[in-house]
Design brief:
237 residues, mainly alpha, 65% helix
Length: 237
């Protein structure tokens, strides 16, 4: 997993995905979301990864929601519920907590897949902050994106402040998307220094990455260019 993380951190998504079975499902789904392989192949890969409920493969919920695939989300939610009702032998306490979390996050993604963003935001806002034990960074990012879509940038900025809440472990591709969102939000709020640092982080990580990441890098570079032409707060005219 460490080799894949190192490659993904530098934007080499396909190479990271090709590491194979050593890539944890959570990281593999993030790589697919970012374009590691073509969408049709990625769809098959996500379905295979999410066949069982283990090791963070519920990142697939974000993939299905983006495609409006309510059937896959419903099927996944049913698997979660079956584990809740009849846990496997020697099921750990942490697994019970994660299943409880998924019982809440699944409906949030189902609302998102149905394009009911008002309901989705309410459900994402209600998710506990700690119960996923660092396995659900996409959930936090989706919540922030739903807030910014409603112009609630101050709330989003508070969530984005500092390091990602899930950054207690090795970096994931999601972390770079977190920086991009942090740049967008803080640029709108006129927090130029914070936005500049966030955009620079995106460029530093992915400037030499795969072609599918170029739009993110281009956006970050454009942000840096805009900010370089603005006078800092308090500068006399």
């Amino acid at each position: 997993g460490l080799e894949a993380l190192s490659l993904a951190n530098r934007g080499h998504l396909r190479a990271a995905y090709d590491v194979g079975p050593a890539v944890p499902p959570q990281i593999a789904v993030e790589l697919l979301l970012l374009g590691a392989i073509p969408p049709d192949s990625a769809d098959q890969a996500v379905n295979a990864l999410a066949h069982q409920l283990n090791n963070g493969n519920w990142a697939a919920l974000a993939w299905w929601a983006g495609r409006g695939d309510t059937a896959s989300i419903k099927a996944f939610n049913q698997r979660v519920d079956s584990v809740r009702r009849k846990p496997p032998p020697h099921f750990p306490a942490v697994g019970t907590e994660l299943v409880g979390y998924l019982m809440k996050s699944g409906p949030a993604y189902l609302a998102l897949a149905r394009r009911d963003t008002s309901a989705a935001l309410g459900l994402f806002q209600a998710l506990p902050d700690t119960a996923c034990f660092g396995f659900c960074p996409l959930d936090a990012l989706v919540r922030i994106e739903l807030l910014t879509a409603r112009g609630r940038d101050q709330e989003a900025a508070r969530l984005l402040d500092g390091e990602p809440a899930f950054n207690h472990r090795s970096p994931l591709p999601t972390d770079v998307l977190w920086s991009l969102e942090k740049g967008r939000v803080n640029e709108r709020l006129k927090n130029q220094d914070v936005a500049r640092d966030a955009y620079a982080d995106v460029v530093a990580h992915w400037a030499h990455g795969d072609a599918s990441l170029k739009p993110y890098v281009d956006e970050a570079r454009a942000g840096l260019q805009r900010l370089s032409s603005e006078k800092p707060r308090g500068t006399p005219p």
